[in-house]
Specification:
Structural class: alpha+beta
Largest sheet: 7 strands, mixed
Order of helices and strands: HHHHEEHEHEHEHEEEEHHHH
Helix content: 40-55%
Shape: elongated
Distance between the termini: 81 Å
CATH superfamily of the largest domain: Endonuclease Chain A
Radius of gyration: 32 Å
Strand order of the largest sheet: 3-9-8-7-4-5-6
CATH topology of the largest domain: Endonuclease, Chain A
Length: 302
């Protein structure tokens, strides 16, 4: 069974402070010169121990003339150390879980299994997004994105770091973006517009609640939820090929059906259709629903 001293040290109290605390518990209020008679510790060590105990709330201090007196607090004060240990243990547990998840991703890669890593918080989301240019030798990025959510959470970071860095590294972007007003506002003055193609989707018909990034054998998913932003990064060629095919189908279908409904943004050359073509499309499809227009443009017959 552990001794009193060992238990107090395990609780986070320094050994010299434990010794002085137990002396005061056993003898009551004492001045430093009397504490010395009960220990082999030096005067300097005793003063250091008393300072620690005062900081931790385990002793009280009073002055009487030129003399200082120290008295022990009730042992109930030690309950606060239990709560501190619980918090430390919980934090350690969370840190180890994150470490294990990351190590599992690396291990799976060596076993020819999908490498999966999880990231939490805004800094974690930034790490996932940085990977889209750090590990992108193909220099092309395909994205579905909740741009309004993106702008809320890390819009400033994109403007000051991510977009300029993508431009510097010459990473081209093709993005399917929902057409919320906040997204369109965010794109005004976008720092990498010359490397960016955007196809806007009607957010009332095709809402996007996350971001999906597809590039160079990797796929990442990002949630911009304000209460708990997070990201998942998967390194697997089969996942990449499947998601890239789905993106290309959506891109081709969207360009066929929605090129006449595209709002303007900074990249006018790439995203504003030819006026004559736009007028022809409008005339032809004014009375058609989204579903009917898609069927017509794709040649699908009832």
């Amino acid at each position: 069974m552990s001794t009193l001293q060992e238990n107090l040290i395990s609780a986070g109290i320094e050994p010299i402070a434990v010794e002085i605390y137990l002396i005061l518990l056993n003898h009551g209020e004492l001045p430093p010169k009397e504490i010395i008679s009960h220990t082999s510790l030096s005067r300097a060590s005793i003063h250091d121990a008393l300072a620690l105990l005062l900081t931790q709330g385990l002793v009280t201090y009073r002055k009487e003339g030129r003399n200082a007196y120290y008295a022990p607090e009730h042992p109930n004060k030690l309950f606060s150390f239990i709560e501190t240990k619980k918090r430390e243990t919980s934090l350690f547990e969370d840190e180890m879980k994150e470490t294990i998840r990351n190590l599992t991703g690396a291990f799976n890669l060596t076993q020819n299994k999908p490498g999966v890593r999880f990231f939490e918080g805004i800094e974690g989301v930034k790490e996932v997004l940085k990977d889209t240019f750090i590990n992108n030798t193909s220099k092309i990025l395909y994205t579905y994105t909740d741009l309004a959510g993106y702008a809320d959470i890390i819009g400033d970071w994109n403007s000051t770091y991510y977009a300029p860095k993508r431009k510097e590294m010459n990473i081209r972007l093709k993005a399917l973006v929902t057409d919320e007003e906040k997204a369109l506002k965010f794109l005004k003055g976008y720092k990498a517009s010359e490397l960016t193609e955007i196809l806007f989707l009607d957010h009332t018909v095709f809402p996007l609640a996350t971001e999906v990034n597809i590039y160079d054998g990797r796929v990442s998913f990002v949630s911009f939820a304000k209460d708990k932003p997070m990201g998942v990064l998967i390194e697997n060629h089969d996942f990449y090929l499947t998601m890239k095919s789905v993106f290309e189908f959506a891109w081709k279908t969207g360009n066929t059906c929605y090129d006449h409904k595209q709002p303007t943004w900074d990249n006018q050359t790439q995203n504003t259709p030819h006026p004559k073509k736009q007028e022809e499309k409008k005339t032809e499809s004014e009375s058609l629903s989204v579903a009917e227009q898609m069927k017509k443009d794709l040649g699908i017959q009832e």
